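User: Predict the structure for this protein chain, please.
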Amino acid sequence: MTPWVLRLLGANVFLYFVAPPGSRLFAQLALIPWAVPFRPWTVVTYMFLHGGLGHLFFNMLGLFFFGPRLERQLGSRHFLGLYLWSGLGGAAFSFLFARHAAVVGASGAVFGILLAFAYFWPREPILLWGVLPVQARWLVAAMAVMALWSGVTGTQAGVAHFAHLGGFAFGYAYLAWRRHRYLRQWRPMATPAATLAQAAARAAQGDPLKRWRAIRLDQLHILNREEVERLLAKAEREGVGALTPAERALLDRFAEGPAN
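Assistant: Here is the predicted structure, written as structure tokens:
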């Protein structure tokens, strides 16, 4: 269990008992989109309320399963930012498409977490009902289509389908923004001559591809992982000799142990 997953689980469970459905406090904290100018706090508080134990259980189950690994990947600060921003996306889409309905629940925030999980681990199998394996990317795609269809057709009355879509949309926007900022701040560094010489010596000894294939891609930052995958594909396709000394040095560095 990671710090913010634990705190968010606790906050949601605590609010369920402090502001149970039907209570006066529940009504004051729930989101009614047209009333947001008069009750602006509800764009945040609504995501900590739930309409029943089943609603609370399934949202917290999603946070429990997908949150810890994602928090370790993003770091606690950005994980919390993603969670809250996705929840705000649920509020924004509710304002656009369901102005007069009361909206509660962490679903928008949790859907953002699920989308981010699929973003980093798209082929990770998720066991539906504990039996049927579905890759994370296809699960998210199916849930998005179902939410859109249900929202447009009005099926499953009482479910905030557009809030779910808002969680997906704002979650993706947050990840794209963070990736853009990371790329903008990144500057390539020259590889030291000694490192290049070591890479050349290693290339002459044995099969470097065997060593590079052992790199733990799942432990790398997504940008580093994409670069390593690109270089491995190039080496497989064109041969080790097609790599520049700097490219071989980079692969050697990641082959030596886990890095970000």
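The mean pLDDT is 81.
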